[in-house]
Specification:
Mean pLDDT: 97
CATH class of the largest domain: Alpha Beta
Number of strands: 14
Bound molecules: 1,4-dihydronicotinamide adenine dinucleotide, 2-OXO-4-methylpentanoic acid, magnesium ion
Cofactor: Mg(2+); Mn(2+)
CATH topology of the largest domain: Isopropylmalate Dehydrogenase
Enzyme class: oxidoreductase
Protein name: 3-isopropylmalate dehydrogenase
Subunit structure: Homodimer.
Function: Catalyzes the oxidation of 3-carboxy-2-hydroxy-4-methylpentanoate (3-isopropylmalate) to 3-carboxy-4-methyl-2-oxopentanoate. The product decarboxylates to 4-methyl-2 oxopentanoate.
Number of domains: 2
């Protein structure tokens, strides 16, 4: 007997539109193969929503999100806003607002290298082999949500980096619980030598750590962590960190998995789950059909596992991605000088290969 689930799809902007179509197709194929009933609705957010309604997160999208069992999101962003920092209404505000409104405080970003992609990274294969890191990025606090100010003369600006004890406690607990199911190591990343918000972070993580004596705890400053990630990624198991540091470190960590186009994420918290690639709308390749759809497809796999508890189905998707890579197919971002030209393909051909391997 299958399950019935309502999924809201928010493709967003740029390559978000191109790759999310494949995340959705994979979910539909899984529903068909396993006799589940997945109902899809679509919502707008980001630049497309500003163009249509003037609002980067229309109330209608938020309402649909609240009523859904899970959300599959692509990316938001447009060069127009990146090139004009004076614009007040911006696509990113939609994403920040939906995260806050839905209470999605824990952003899980798994960094797992498919062996087939050992040669895709700019890091040496012997450093990468066996890397498997799970990031817990706090998602509804920090400098992204603190008070913003600009003086009347426009010459001085500030963004408040702010954390409350309860925010650190709840993300730390999630990280420790996950570590227990993995290699029992947590590395908490902060800048406690300089920032008061980080000193609170470290204090709270030290307290939570006492509840998990079976889990090894390490505290690391963000600057050192950025270096250690590339020097020796295998030393990390679970990493827990704030919103800003997590955002930056995981883009860096995408190189451990070969490309930004490989990294999926799950945002969880108080209500429905929200699944998205970690990448943005990628103006440089948008509209060209070149984007790697695997991060969206792997985000769909996370949805099946985390929100729906469908572990077999989730594994089926991951195996289909693995099989596609083993057959040698590559989008441009994960190809290298040894890849045969005939095996390098665009978004739709790559998504199609994964679908074939699902059946
Ligand atoms: N979650 C979101 O919606 C995010 C939105 N953004 C927005 O996206 C826009 C572009 O930002 P960028 O800093 O350029 O970051 P980005 O993540 O869009 O792109 C960074 C680089 O990675 C490449 N890349 C990203 N995804 C790829 C994929 N699936 N396949 C192949 N290559 C891929 C891009 O071509 C680019 O060279 C901005 O407007 C930014 O605000 C940025 C990050 C996250
Ligand atoms: C565009 C930002 C709001 C977020 C971001 O870069 C991310 O979530 O990775
Ligand atoms: Mg980011």
């Amino acid at each position: 007997m299958g399950v019935a689930k309502k999924i809201l799809v928010i493709p967003g902007d740029g390559i978000g539109q191109e790759v999310t179509a494949w995340g959705q197709k994979v979910l539909s194929a899984i529903a068909e193969n396993f006799k589940h009933e997945f109902t899809f609705e679509e919502g707008i957010m980001g630049h497309v929503a500003i163009e249509a309604t003037g609002n980067p997160l229309p109330d209608e999208t938020l309402e649909k999100a609240r009523k859904s069992d899970a959300i599959l999101f692509g990316a938001i962003g447009h060069a127009k806003y990146d090139n004009d920092p004076t614009l007040k209404v911006r696509p990113e505000q939609g994403l920040l607002k939906i995260r806050k409104e839905l209470g999605l405080y824990a952003n899980l970003r798994p960094i797992k290298l498919f062996d087939e992609l050992l040669e895709a990274s700019s890091i040496k294969p012997e450093i990468l082999r066996g890397s498997d890191i799970l990031f817990f990025r706090e998602l509804t606090g920090d400098v992204y949500f603190g008070e913003k100010n600009r003086t009347a003369d426009r010459n001085t600006a500030s963004d408040l980096m702010i954390y409350h004890r309860y925010e650190v406690e709840r993300i730390a607990r999630k990280a420790y619980e996950a570590a227990r199911t993995r290699r029992s190591k947590v590395c908490s990343v902060d800048k406690a030598n300089v920032l008061e918000a980080s000193r609170l972070w470290r204090e709270v993580v030290q307290e939570v750590a006492k509840e998990y004596p079976d889990v090894e705890t390490e505290h690391m400053f963000i600057d050192n962590a950025a270096m250690q990630l590339i020097k020796d990624p295998k030393r990390f198991d679970v990493v827990v960190t704030g919103n800003l540091f997590g955002d930056i470190l995981t883009d860096e960590a995408s190189q451990i998995a070969g490309s930004m186009g490989m990294l999926a994420s799950a945002s969880i918290g108080d209500s429905t789950g929200f699944y998205e690639p970690i990448h943005g709308s990628a103006h440089d390749i948008a509209g060209k059909g070149l984007a790697n759809p695997l991060a969206s497809i792997l985000s769909a796999a996370l949805m099946l596992d985390i929100s729906f508890g469908l572990k077999t189905e989730s594994q089926r998707v991951i195996k289909a991605v693995e099989a596609t890579l083993r057959q040698g197919y590559r989008t441009m971002d994960i190809a290298n000088k040894h890849t045969e030209n005939a095996l390098i393909m665009g978004t739709d051909a790559m998504g199609g290969k994964v679908l074939e391997n699902l059946n």
